[in-house]
Amino acid sequence: MDSLANGRRIKCLTIVDDFTKECLDIPVAHGISGEQVCRTLDAIAAFRGYPRAIRTDQGPEFTGKALDQWAYEHWVELKLIQPGKPMQNGYIESFNGKFRDECLNEHWFKDLAHTRQLISDWRVDYNEQRPHSSLDYKTPLEFASMFRVQATESTNNDITRKQLD
Q1: What is the pLDDT of residues 14-73, one digit of tens each?
Q2: What is the DSSP string of 56-97?
Q3: Exposed/middle/buried for 22, CB within 10 Å: 0-12, 13-18, 19+?
Q4: Residue 23: what are its φ and ψ, rounded to 5°?
Q5: Mean pLDDT for the chain?
Q6: What are phi and psi of 24, to 5 degrees?
Q7: Which of 59, 71, 95, 119 registers the highest number of CB atoms within 10 A of its CB?
Q8: Separation CA 28–CA 26 (nearest Å)
Q9: How many CB atoms lie within 10 A of CB 102?
Q10: Residue 4 DSSP one-character state
């Protein structure tokens, strides 16, 4: 959460892949509903497929009927952390700290469009320019690309083996 120069509150929904460390999206609005969360997850799934599970805090946008129904329809397990236990979702807590220190605290946001542009630029930098020690010093984008290539090669090898049998 942050605010614009005029004092109006904004919310940012940080969506990060625990495995690749990619920041998949950070939608920004004056408020974020469960329906908006679902639309954002559908947009991400259009390119990446639906996840097996999603870990969230106990915010109303995550505990309402909209996300519950969405998860049921797409066979996605919702893993809600216990209230007051943010370290059950430690990576996103660390990510959110970096996001706050390096982006939100560094800018004076004029309006939503300006905010979205600055946050988008920060997200691209995070994904494409910053190596992570947990990813063998690859950027999240490099690691994810490498993993997708390996997964595709493995699938192609399985198909070739099946064709030879």
Answers
A1: 999 999 999 999 999 999 999 999 999 999 999 999 999 999 998 999 999 999 999 999
A2: E-S-HHHHSHHHHHHHHHTT-EEEEPPTT-GGGGHHHHHHHH
A3: buried
A4: -85, 110
A5: 90
A6: -75, -30
A7: 119
A8: 6
A9: 13
A10: -
CA distances from 66 to 15, 21, 61, 71, 151 (A): 17, 26, 8, 9, 32
Question: Between the CA of residue 121 and those of 1, 15, 115, what are the distances in Å?
Answer: 18, 15, 10
- Pseudo-torsion of CA 127, 129, 132, 137, nearest 10°? 130
- The pTM of the full predicted model, rounded to 2 decimals, is 0.86
Cα(139)–Cα(27) distance, rounded to whole angstroms? 22
Alpha-carbon distance of 3 to 16, in angstroms, equals 22
- Look at the block and give the residue holding tokens 């005029």: 6
Task: Report d(CA 43, CA 70) in Å as an integer.
Answer: 13
By C-alpha distance, which of 20, 15, 19, 47 is closest to 128?
Answer: 20
Phi, psi of 9 (to 5 degrees): -70, 145
Q: What are phi and psi of 30, to 5 degrees?
A: -70, -25
Structure tokens at 158: 């399985």
Question: Encoding tokens for residue 122?
Answer: 């920060």
